[in-house]
Amino acid sequence: MKFFRFDRLAWIFMRVSGFLLIGLIFTHLIVNLMQDGGVKAIDFAFVAGKLANPFWQWFDVTLLWLALIHGSNGMRVVIDDYVYRTGVKRFLLVSLVISTTTLIVLGTLVIFTLNPCPVGSPADLLPSFCAAG
Amino acid sequence: MSIKTPTKPKTVFRGTLYRGHEGMWSWVLHRITGIAIYFFLLVHVLDTATVRLDPELYNAVMASYKTPIMGLGEAALVAAIVFHAFNGLRIILVDMTAWASRHHRALFYGVLVLWAVVMIAFLPRHLMHVFGG
Question: What is the ipTM of this complex?
Fold first, then answer.
């Protein structure tokens, strides 16, 4: 069916996800690079503190999925444009699918299974709320 | 009956630039920034995944992002992201409205102005984080 052709869906996805990614990534950059100490303030306590909050879990997992699918679809278009040899093209496309899937699964697991207060770690490396428990 | 003498072709080749106008630069820059951001994204998901393994390991990995050279790299990354974001909005507008496709050149200069404004807001703060004490 023409209406649901893959390239058409991909074209729509790039515009919709691109629009959403602007809000997601600008927020991500403001919180991580501009607020407080910027890049120098990013450490385990900062990330674990953020990911202990369901809002940031869902924010980050949405960002992860949209960014990786948007980016890998962009790379698919680039490969289509410049690689003519069938064997090389197939190798690159298969690598792209494997790496994208791996990173989406890995990132999603990290976001939802991170323990912000791992036992045996020095308390000064952990978020402040770990001390209360 | 006279025989037509072959005339020299009138086409003049000016280097290898494809047209060389705003539309081309918009396309070239969108592609280059997109590919650059994609490869950073691959590394970024992997470095963030170490947060799941061990607080000290994650902090050590993050320390490599806090050096002066990486700080400049982050500035370049943000510059690429901000351009890709605004130029992407321009692409969506040009696709969707007749007005924007008539004024796509002016919109490209609008993208450059918005990009400059955001970078002027971002750079001093980021460079202070990286180079200030």
Answer: 0.92
